[in-house]
Write a structure and sequence with these properties.
45% of the residues lie in helices and 23% in strands. It is of the alpha/beta class and 594 residues long. The chain is elongated, with a radius of gyration of 39 Å. The N and C termini lie far apart (109 Å). InterPro entries: Biofilm_reg_signaling (IPR052155), EAL_dom (IPR001633), EAL_sf (IPR035919), GGDEF_dom (IPR000160), Nucleotide_cyclase (IPR029787), PAS-like_dom_sf (IPR035965), Rev_trsase/Diguanyl_cyclase (IPR043128).
Length: 594
């Protein structure tokens, strides 16, 4: 049987011969009407000679869009078409359309043509709404913060650079660097969801009263950048920043919690404080850190002195990293003395750093920086290693029963990972019961894992616990009731001129009674004068003290040269003039202690 297929499929010539002219027009009209893109033809009078089904939907002529919608889009298309015909110009542009789910984005191509002596405009349009939505999402993800909706760093950087390039005399602006104080503490205490909600609320308050020419940006976790442009003078900026600080002092109510969050602000001015974005940002950052160091919750304008401080900080940072890497550090030891028998009860290990110029740096210049840079764990382990290497010399000088205190930062105390490794290192010394860990109050009274996870490990080893700088931090009687510390060290702030300050005397008696009730011994820190010592001996039951009156921090180099121990060289306090009572057996030029 022959294959009938070729005979059943007419050729193109056969089709054309078999279709009448009217049929061709009907076929062509049906094809154009059902094209998947919108097609319109418009004449020079603005009349639409052809609108296919897709174009009708795009213009709101179909699908129940309403007469107003249809008229709006049809008039816009007519006006645009007449303009293109008038100039005889082809173009491709994005235009708005009337979709069934709201406004569409159309990509429309328009081309003037001439047919039978008539000038017509042939237009073809496609719906690109979905592609535009994806583009907008990608754009916002790249340039806007997903949490607060604020512009990101690159947006404000571009804006600032544009202002600098178009600068004319008199067009000054200000760049303010804002950082939420203690945000990590808030995150740790309340949880990250509350922290995120706080960032959103802070952003709202910071954005109040901004002009269209100003810009607020979130540049990292809890850091914001504020552009005020233009400005007339520094006073104008100072007034605005102060008003911002006042707004932020009001409490935030989030998930049933009342949260107080202050902000530190550093400000640089263009062109006085820099002529590039990087320099302005750098100087505003320096000013902000000055506020952090001075107590937080305030604002400061950049000045040249801050730059010198920042360079010194960088130098110390480099020295610190180098000293830890090369183990170029050393320890000093300050005795804790029984004020009634003059015997050394224990010693506190104090780390010191010698800079490139040979100057001894006290912990106050680098401990906080070590914590900030994440170097404090290495530094603490190095202190322990130095003690172990020198234990024979320590025993010879201070006695084999003297406790050895090591300071641990609150951040370390709240890290079970570090504290477990440190406890293992203490155990590996072979004499863990000799050690006393000194931590500040905030390690106990904040929402921390120290008491629940770390204390049991230390107790099992027999390591003692001391509360350092008691009375100046986060003192809480209710929290102290749950603490199983062995020792409270009363801060120097309560001891200074204690014989002349009745109110401090009352506080001292209260702390003494509290320690007795909780079974803790008390150490008075910072004894510097005979009068302070005499008051403690006569008016309190405090047994132990530490301070320059008894000894400055003793360096191992001095111990190796055979310097005498404090308990072996004491003479009667009453046998010397009052102003000469401070012993110099361990005196050093630098009067530093932690």
């Amino acid at each position: 049987m022959k294959n009938p297929l070729p005979d059943q499929i007419p050729s193109s010539a056969q089709q054309q011969a078999e279709l009448p002219f009217d049929g061709e027009l009907v076929l062509l009209r049906d094809i154009v009407r059902q094209l998947p893109a919108g097609v319109t033809v418009q004449d020079e009078d603005g009349r639409f000679l052809l609108i296919n089904d897709v174009a009708a939907a795009q213009l709101g002529l179909a699908g129940g869009q309403g007469d107003d919608v249809a008229a709006k889009h049809l008039n816009e298309r007519r006006a645009a078409g007449l303009e293109l015909l008038r100039h005889g110009r082809a173009t491709v542009a994005e235009v708005a359309g009337a979709g069934s789910n709201g406004t569409q984005v159309l990509l429309a191509a328009h081309r003037p043509i001439s047919v039978a002596g008539r000038n017509l405009l042939l237009s073809c349009s496609a719906d690109i709404s979905e592609q535009k939505a994806v583009e907008d999402h990608l754009f916002r993800s790249a340039y806007f913060d997903g949490l607060t909706g604020l512009p990101m760093r690159r947006v404000i950087e571009h804006r600032v650079q544009g202002l600098i390039q178009r600068y004319e005399p008199g067009n000054a602006f200000a760049l303010a660097f804002l950082d939420i104080d203690n945000f990590k503490h808030i995150n740790d205490y309340y949880g990250h969801s509350v922290g995120d909600a706080l960032l959103v609320e802070v952003a709202k308050r910071l954005g109040l009263n901004l002009r269209e020419t100003d810009m607020l940006s979130r540049i990292s976790g809890d850091e914001f950048l504020l552009l005020l442009a233009p400005i007339d003078n520094e006073e104008e900026v100072a007034d605005y920043v102060e008003a911002t600080l006042q707004r932020l002092k009001a409490p935030f109510f989030i998930d049933g919690s009342e949260i107080f969050a202050s902000t530190s602000i550093g400000v640089s001015l263009f062109p006085d404080h820099g002529r590039s974005y990087d320099m302005l940002l750098h100087n505003a950052d320096i000013a902000m850190y000055r506020v952090k160091n001075d107590g937080k919750g305030a604002a400061a304008f950049f000045d040249a002195g801050m730059e010198r401080e920042a360079l010194l900080r960088m130098k110390i940072e480099q020295s610190l990293r180098h000293a830890i890497l090369e183990k170029q550090f050393f320890c000093a030891f300050q005795p804790k003395v029984d004020i009634r028998t003059r015997e050394v009860k224990g010693i506190e290990a104090l780390v010191r750093l010698r800079d490139d110029d040979g100057i001894i740096q006290a912990p106050g210049t680098f401990i906080n920086l070590a914590v900030e840079l994440g170097l404090i764990d290495d530094l603490t382990h190095l202190v322990l290693a130095e003690i172990v290497r020198s234990i024979d010399l320590i025993n010879e000088t201070f006695g084999p029963t003297a406790t050895i205190s090591i300071n641990v930062a609150a951040k370390q105390a709240d890290s079970p990972t570090f504290m477990r490794s440190f406890a293992e290192a203490l155990d590996a010394t072979g004499f863990p019961r000799r050690f006393m860990i000194e931590v500040t109050e905030d390690a106990f009274v904040t929402k921390t894992r120290f008491q629940s996870e770390v204390l049991p490990i230390l107790r099992k080893l027999g390591v003692g616990i001391s509360i350092d700088d008691f009375g100046i931090g986060y003192s809480s009687l209710s929290a102290l009731a749950d603490i199983t510390a062995d020792e409270i060290k009363i801060d120097r702030a309560f001891i200074k001129d204690i014989h002349l300050r009745p109110r401090s005397q009352g506080i001292l008696r209260a702390i003494e009674s509290l320690a007795d009730a909780l079974g803790m011994s008390v150490v008075a820190e910072g004894i510097e004068t005979f009068e302070e010592l005499a008051y403690l001996q006569a008016a309190t039951r405090i047994r132990y003290a530490q301070g320059f009156y008894f000894a400055h921090p003793i360096f191992l180099e001095e111990l190796k040269t055979g310097a005498p121990a404090s308990s072996d060289t004491r003479v009667s306090e009453t046998s010397r003039p009052m102003q000469e009572n401070r012993h110099s057996d361990y005196a050093r030029p630098a009067r530093y202690r932690r």
